[in-house]
Amino acid sequence: MTAATDCLGRTPLHVAAGSKASASLIKLIALACPAACEVQDEEGKTPLHFACDSSCVLFEDQNGDEDDASNQPPNHESIRALLSCSIHAATLEDDADMTPLEHAIMSDASLKTVKLLQAATSKGVQLKKGSQSQSFVAAMKCLQVQDDFIPGNCISSRPRKMARRMSSSVA
To answer: What is the C-alpha separation between 148 and 68, in angstroms, rounded?
Structure first.
């Protein structure tokens, strides 16, 4: 049932992510049908796009509803739940040529969420190019985010190296 789509090509996972359902519900639906994580609707959006876009509108009559949670930034745990079932979804662009990462940035996502999406996008691209078994294991390690710590192999350490070069040139 979770693979079924409506007239707009949306799955129940799209609706759950777009309506800001709890992370546990999103995870439950995603685990029941992992393929639904990569389904793109008529606008090219995956459930991850909806979870990352705080201004998304599921239904036309939802536009005037100011009491909803549309002004809240994307939920980190919901995004993490979707990525745990599909890293590839982080690399997909919608019809407006935007990735989930770009939607998250436009929606004032936390730095922790942006870094998670950056890591997932990077690993998703590697999955497309390289050895899938090694990249999949590396991608799953990136999703094991605890508190504000992001594993060093998932984000660029360039700023640290640059800071070290600057301090050594001063000395």
So the answer is: 28
Query: What is the rounded distance in angstroms from the CA atom of residue 103 to the CA atom of residue 73?
Result: 10
Q: Which helix (H) or strand (E) holds 126?
A: helix 111-129
Global pTM?
0.73
**Alpha-carbon distance 108 to 105, whole Å?**
5
At residue 56, the pLDDT reads 86
> Residue 59 — pLDDT band, cuts 50, 70, 90?
confident
Residue type, 147: D
Give the ranges where 8-110 is alpha helix by DSSP (H): 12-18, 23-32, 47-52, 76-85, 100-106
Which of these, 98, 100, 99, 108, lies nearest to 72 by C-alpha position? 108
Average pLDDT over residues 13-31: 95
